[in-house]
Write a structure and sequence with these properties.
alpha+beta; 2 domains; five-stranded mixed β-sheet; globular
Length: about 260
């Protein structure tokens, strides 16, 4: 009996010790730096975005995308205590290209170790960077030219490019082009803020991957609906302004976070 009581007491003490160690680990300060990945998964409504696949919009028009690129910029991460970390502007411009799988995963190095709860980013190039001129753009401008993401320098960058063919009442497999960017005096730069369903736990030995869904259906069939029967090229004026103001900020959603 004494032997049993002794073993029971030892088991209780061991449990308390382990719990204490666990609590100490949970409360240990987080330090150092790590990396974080943003994965952009392009979809069309409830389906994966696949070039050459036909999708039907709410207005009955059919579209078959063959090109989808957008600029992600000015990334800001918010920690669970409400403070933020801003990725240096010079390191915070990325071209997400559906035709290039590697470009859809953005790796952010040198991130302060912390628990992050939200991410903010721009779609397009902010006015400060735009005003730096061609000589101030470096590799970014060269990359944009190679991807067909520029107009003349007076117009600057295309912030988003969504192209393919469409079948409407009077068109069959006609080429459509949706290009967004600065139109007149309206800059059309959009910002997106997304809360994470789970915290992204950046550590020196843990690189979280934030899985972001990007719904291209909402670009042309969102709050503002584009009717290709009225015009196959959407590149300026109020249509582009409405797409960037109303549709683009709603096309992104965090699906989940991997912390392994």
């Amino acid at each position: 009996m004494k032997f049993q009581l002794k073993n029971l007491a030892l088991a209780i003490m061991t449990t308390i010790a382990l719990t204490s160690c666990s609590n100490d680990d949970d409360n240990a300060p987080i330090s150092g730096e790590g990396s974080l990945k943003l994965e952009f998964d392009n979809v069309y409504g409830d389906a994966d975005l696949i070039f050459g696949t036909e999708y039907t919009n709410s207005n009955g028009e059919k579209v078959k995308p063959n090109n989808a690129i957008y600029i992600v910029s000015n990334i800001v991460l918010t920690k669970e205590d409400g403070t933020t970390y801003t990725v240096p502007k010079s390191e915070s411009y990325f071209f997400v290209n559906e035709a290039d799988a590697a470009s859809t995963i953005i790796t952010l190095p040198n991130i302060p170790a912390a628990n992050y709860t939200s991410v903010k980013f721009g779609i397009g190039v902010d006015q400060e960077q735009f005003n730096a001129g061609a000589d101030g753009q470096g590799d970014m401008w060269t990359t944009a030219q190679g991807l067909g993401m520029t107009w003349s320098w007076a117009a600057g960058y295309k912030f988003m490019k969504f192209e393919g063919t469409t079948t409407t009442t009077s068109h069959t497999d006609a080429v459509y082009r949706v290009h967004t960017g600065k139109t007149g005096d309206v800059y059309n730069y959009a910002e997106v803020t997304l809360n994470m369903p789970e915290k992204a736990l950046v550590r020196t030995n843990v690189t979280p991957q934030v899985h972001i869904m990007a719904d291209f259906k909402k670009v042309i069939d969102g709050t503002t609906k584009i009717n290709f029967e009225e015009g196959l090229d959407v590149m300026g004026g109020t249509k582009v302004q409405n797409i960037m103001a109303n549709n683009v900020p709603t096309m992104f959603e965090i699906h989940h976070v991997h912390n392994d």
